[in-house]
Design brief:
Layout: E1 4-7, E2 10-13, E3 18-24, E4 33-39, E5 46-52, E6 57-59, E7 67-72, E8 77-82, E9 91-101, E10 104-109, E11 113-118
Parallel strand pairs: 2-11
Antiparallel strand pairs: 1-3, 3-8, 4-5, 4-9, 5-6, 7-8, 9-10, 9-11
Length: about 120
């Protein structure tokens, strides 16, 4: 199992920046991929960015060039640096760990952190 603890959300003006952190309860190299998802009111949860244990990252089109996912293996932590924020980035952001375990793939989620971007 994996426990995930997020931090770093808040209120920011459009054009501003925030950095989200997600601390995992075990080595991130033992987790096949870690990512950030977001869910805005009335919308489905969507992938924002993910990084594999091998270091390959991918990004959703709306945030490409503005957000960067990174990791610190010594701290078992994954980050999401969000720059040039827009009001449409407002959502609850969730950290995800996608893990192959004995009986198949499992997804673990953090508690979510609110990001609000004012215009």
């Amino acid at each position: 199992q994996v426990q995930l603890v997020e931090s770093g959300g808040g209120l920011v003006q459009a054009g501003g920046s925030l950095r989200l952190s997600c601390a995992a309860s075990r080595s991130i190299f033992s987790i096949n991929s870690m990512g950030w998802y977001r869910q805005a009111p009335g919308k489905q949860r969507e992938l924002v960015a993910a990084i594999t244990s091998g270091g390959t990252s991918n990004y959703a089109d709306p945030i490409k060039g503005r957000f960067t996912i990174s990791r610190d293996s010594a701290k078992n932590t994954v980050y999401l640096q969000m720059n040039s924020l827009k009001p449409e980035d407002t959502a609850v952001y969730y950290c995800n760990a996608h893990v192959w375990e004995v009986f198949g793939w499992n997804d673990y989620w953090g508690q979510g952190t609110q990001v609000t971007v004012s215009s």
